Amino acid sequence: MEASLFDELDKDKKIINDKYTIDELFKRSLNYKSSADFTKFFNFIASFNHYSRYNTMLVYIQNPEVTFFGGSSFWQNRNRTINIEAKPLLILCPNGPMMCVYDIYDTSGKQSVQDFLNEGSGATGIKGFISQKLYDDILKSVTNWGLKVIFKPLSFFHGGYITNIISGRLEIVLNENATKEENFSVLIHELAHLFLGHTGHKTLNHLYLKKTIKLSDKKLSKTAKELEAETVSFLLCSKIGLKTNASEYLAGYIKNEKDLDDFNFEFVIKTADKLENLFL
User: In Å, what is the CA distance from 33 to each residue of 14, 24, 40, 262?
Assistant: First the structure.
């Protein structure tokens, strides 16, 4: 017998409630009171595209010193075996309740751990490449949602901005002299401001699909807004292989312990997932 609509709604509600408990769990379990700890966490989250951000959070809670993790089949496909004394870490499994993953230092193979890790290493700064098609597609998708994207000559220190509700129009301004990779990073940052509820807009309407998205409404300090928006941009840029200077950007905003008080880890990660589903 098929599950009823009410059963599905109850199931969805439980999933949402369970996910929101992560935010409280982080506040109790970890003490993120310095820019180094803050950026370390999100560098960790962005490093594991073969697992969901939610599962990566779970691994970090259990052991923030994990270097690179994967399940049994993940390591087997990379010609590595799990050591007998390996310590398993638990994550959620799509086809079951839980599964075990293991740090690379708990595996053995012909390739050294350092050589394996070096294959995926990268430097800081805006580095990497996105195709013209991806860039054009996201610009088209953004305009389909009623946002106007304008290119203007901006200073080196001003990558772009989004208008707020007071301006009476919804526009994202990008630097006409920037590369498409730099503008992509800024575009996601400004979209994050919108979807995180920083601009004061209530809804977003698709011009052709007759769809409406209800936007969040959050009253935060400028510091908290920038931390949230740049973190979303960092996560999505990392997802497609762009290396940004987000760590330095974020560290510049975190001046004292109170700067992270309003930062909601769970909401930021859920917003990154939402933007990825809508525009990428």
Answer: 31, 15, 12, 12
Q: β-strand 148-152 against 171-175: which pairing, if any? A: parallel
- For 176-204, the pLDDT digits (tens) are 988 899 999 999 999 999 999 999 999 99
Instruction: Return the domain boundaries, the chain.
Output: 1-29, 31-118, 132-279
Query: Of how many residues is the chain composed?
Result: 280
- Which amino acid makes up residue 47? S
Beta bridge partners of 130: none
Per-residue pLDDT reduced to its tens digit, 21-59: 445 544 454 444 466 677 778 878 877 777 788 888 899
**Rounded CA separation 52/34 (Å):** 25
Confirm if 272 and 236 have CB atoms less than 8 A apart: yes
Structure-token pair, residue 128: 């990497």
Match 């638990």 to its residue by tokens: 90
C-alpha 181, offset from chain centre? 17
- Alpha-carbon distance of 13 to 94, in angstroms, equals 17
pTM score: 0.68
CB 206 within 8 A of CB 144: yes
Q: Which two tokens stand for residue 94?
A: 């799509």
Positive or negative, the CA dihedral 84, 89, 90, 93 is: negative
Alpha-carbon span 145 to 140, nearest angstrom: 9
Q: Is the dihedral of CA 166, 169, 174, 176 positive or negative?
A: negative
Distances (CA, A) of 250 to 112, 163, 202, 273: 33, 22, 27, 20
